[in-house]
Amino acid sequence: MSRRTGQRGHIERSGRWWVIRWWMDVPANEKRRHIRERICPISGLGTLSKSERARRAREIIAASGADTEEYFKKIVKKKGGGLRFQEQAKLWLNHVRSRKRKPVAHSTLESWEGCLNKWINPNIGDLPLSEVNNTVLKSLVAKMVEGGLSPKSIDTYSQVVKTVVASAVNDEGEEIYPRKWNHEFIDMPVVEEEKQNTPTFSSEVMTGLASWKKERERMIFVLCGAGGFRVGEVLGIEIDKHISPDFLTISVEQKVHHGRVEQRLKTANGLRQVDLHPAIAALLKEFVGDRTTGFLFCTRKGKPLSPTNIIRRHLHTALKELNYVNPFTGTHKAGNHAFRRFRNTFLRNKTQCPEGLRNYWMGHKGNSMDDLYDKIKEDVQFRREWAERSGFGFELPSVVPSVPKCTENAEVAVAA
User: Fold this and answer.
1) At 264, which helix (H) or strand (E)?
2) Is residue 153 located within the same domain as residue 210?
3) Partners of residue 17 on adjacent β-strands
4) pLDDT (tens digit per residue) in 169-222
5) Which of 19, 185, 256, 338 has a beta carbon 3.0–4.6 Å from 14's, enabling a disulfide?
């Protein structure tokens, strides 16, 4: 936007005069204010017809310069131009933190704050917001490339810059500094999905995790692999609220992040029910024991566990002992999505599980009207039958006498 356009003002009576009122930007003021000027007397000498009054009103507004490009640059952009990028970034974060439309998860906010504090503000935070353009972003991208960030991280951080610039709007909600971002000019790295760090587990690795020496963490690994849960979702399970009496179904309604419960899941489709194989349900029932309330996995004081601690202190340790190697990084480390990739890969390629049911269990959003009309989630009996037929793709520890072993080959044969 280079200027304000189309302002015709409002003609009204004021005493013995016809007057025109219009919006005018005023230096040093955040908001515009109404300006009023006389057009002509209502009666007597100098009175004008309705059309003449309208024409005269337009002339008065034009003479004020309110809609000219020069005035816009001098007054309107000056008000935003004095605002530094990091100041606008702070305003933007406060807005997205409290907005009702499309609320943002705490983990996402923390990620945005982290990239702003570590990469963006130290490099461009002191620049006037009006000067953050393709050239500035090009230099920032070059520094991030030099710093060793992955193409995906650079793309994500660059999107934060674009969003902060676009968040500066005028009284009509229009962007003050619209930008046409040019990725070719910026030399934005291309994100190659096949090179993304997206590890999964083999059946052998999952069997090893299912035999981990620590009971609590072992049960977490088993549930994540057999149900396709995120670690935070599993840690948010409460015995009396989310587990069916027969232990065959778990309702995903909340998650744990940094040791605190969040009602908002990662996506709307994350709100779901996951049906378990009877062998997994039996293992879960034995783990719960005589407990009837509280978190399924908790501290000695009954507080929820931290997903980060589970991944870093236990999952990574277990993977190292199993000699697991992440093919993308060459290390023994993998995140909680490796469990979900294992489950999705197994259901999709080694069973005949219906696609709609698989997407429901995994919390994936459909892409067509067929997916929207698919109400498989309402047929609990059908879901449970397929949970048993599909199996889970790894062996359970033989130290649990009440739970039979279930090998991958046997499960595939049943599914076929």
Assistant:
1) none
2) no
3) 14, 41
4) 988 888 999 999 999 999 999 988 878 889 999 999 999 999 999 999 999 999
5) 19
Residue 128 β-bridge partners: 84
As a whole number of angstroms, the distance between CA 50 and CA 58 comes to 13
- Among 173, 195, 217, the domain boundary falls at 195
Read off the tokens for 359: 């997407």
**d(C-alpha 156, C-alpha 154), whole Å:** 5
At 72, is the secondary structure helix, strand, or coil? helix
**161, 53: one domain:** no
Entry field: residues in the chain: 416
Last residue of a domain, one of 80, 99, 122: 80
pLDDT tens profile 241-273? 999 999 999 999 999 988 888 887 777 778 899
Q: Is the pTM of this model over 0.70?
A: no
Instruction: Write out the two tokens for 221.
Output: 């690994």
- Cβ(94)–Cβ(143) under 8 Å? no
Q: Are residues 251 and 372 located together in one domain of the fold?
A: yes
Q: How confident is the model over 101-141, as pLDDT tens digits?
A: 877 777 788 889 999 999 999 999 999 998 999 999 999 99
Tokens, residue 397: 């520890």
